[in-house]
């Protein structure tokens, strides 16, 4: 099967590594197109198990060193999965929203944290990072296959569809300590871009909150702030 360096406009992406490919095959085998194994790969029990899972779901397994030269030239990857992208829709309930996130590694970490705290539905306001970028997939450690991610062109589009969600925006200009908030379900936790945060206009249609921290730093980084608030809100209902 033909492989090419990942670009956003492609209809497929890749899991770079055995662990991620196992997650793909166990959770979303319906999306899997092929699994590539490097000729240097040892036929361990886990490799045999992966091949058997692929056979069960009629997913072709190929020895294809060219794919590794194109997709993982550093030589530290021995299994690659190729899978179809899926246009998803989030469901009613508690959501996370990220406004113009730009870092693939950060987003992958956030997806993994969200999975850990039971958040399944994530809204992203464009322009934004590509959750199907192999860098994001790898940083998520396969959590991408546990969640639903939907892109929205504007926050108004999201608000129109989920008008009953209570919105909590994390903003440094807020004076309300996160610990004072008793979440009303369904709710949406809203975070801004890594560098610029949320536009001030969000204060007009959200309850703004802040995660208190020392004055020795300007702010927490996005994955850290998201993780702290997910932990708090997931236990406040």
Separate helix tally: 7
CATH class of the largest domain: Alpha Beta
Q: Looking across the biggest beta sheet, what order are the strands in? A: 7-6-5-9-8-10
CATH hierarchy: architecture of the largest domain: 3-Layer(aba) Sandwich
Average of per-residue pLDDT values: 93
Shape: elongated
Strand content: 15-25%
How much helix, percentage-wise, in residues? Answer: 25-40%
Question: Uncertain spans, ≥5 residues at pLDDT below 50?
Answer: none
Give a count of the beta strands, DSSP E runs of length 2 or more.
10
- At the third CATH level, what is the topology name of the largest domain? Alpha/beta knot
Q: Please name the fourth-level CATH homologous superfamily of the largest domain.
A: SPOUT methyltransferase, trefoil knot domain
How many separate domains? 2
Provide the succession of SSEs. EHEHEHEEHEHEHEEEH
Tell me the structural class: alpha/beta
Specify Rg, calculated over alpha carbons: 20 Å
What is the makeup of the main sheet?
A: 6 strands, parallel
Distance between the termini: 49 Å
Task: Describe the model.
The chain is α/β, with parallel strands linked by helices and 237 residues long. The chain folds into 2 domains: 73 residues, Ribosomal protein L30/S12 (60s Ribosomal Protein L30, Chain: A), CATH 3.30.1330; 140 residues, SPOUT methyltransferase, trefoil knot domain (Alpha/beta knot, 3-Layer(aba) Sandwich), CATH 3.40.1280.10. It is built from 7 helices and 10 strands. The strands form 2 sheets. The protein has a 6-stranded parallel sheet with strand order 7-6-5-9-8-10. It has a 4-stranded mixed sheet with strand order 1-4-2-3, sandwiched between helices. α4 links the parallel β5 and β6. The radius of gyration is 20 Å and the shape is elongated.
């Amino acid at each position: 099967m033909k492989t090419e360096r990942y670009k956003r406009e492609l209809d497929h992406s890749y899991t770079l590594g055995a662990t991620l490919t196992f997650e793909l095959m166990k959770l979303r085998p319906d999306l899997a197109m092929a699994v590539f194994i490097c000729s240097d790969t040892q036929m361990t029990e886990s490799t045999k198990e992966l091949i058997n899972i692929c056979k069960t779901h009629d997913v072709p397994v190929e020895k294809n060193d060219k794919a590794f030269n194109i997709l993982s030239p550093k030589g530290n990857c021995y299994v690659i999965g190729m899978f179809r992208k899926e246009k998803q829709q989030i469901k009613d309930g508690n959501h996370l929203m990220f406004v113009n996130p730009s870092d693939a590694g950060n987003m992958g970490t956030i997806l993994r944290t969200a999975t850990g705290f039971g958040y399944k539905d994530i809204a992203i306001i464009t322009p934004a990072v590509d959750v199907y970028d192999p860098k994001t997939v790898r940083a998520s450690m396969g959590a991408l296959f546990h969640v639903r991610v939907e892109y929205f062109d504007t926050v108004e589009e999201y608000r129109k569809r989920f008008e009953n969600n209570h919105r909590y925006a994390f903003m440094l200009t807020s004076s309300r300590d996160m610990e004072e908030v008793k979440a009303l379900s369904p709710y949406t936790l809203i975070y801004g871009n890594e560098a610029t945060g949320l536009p001030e206009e969000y204060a007009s249609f959200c309850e703004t909150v802040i995660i208190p921290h020392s004055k020795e730093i300007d702010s927490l980084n996005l994955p850290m702030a998201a993780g702290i608030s997910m932990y708090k809100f997931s236990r406040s209902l």
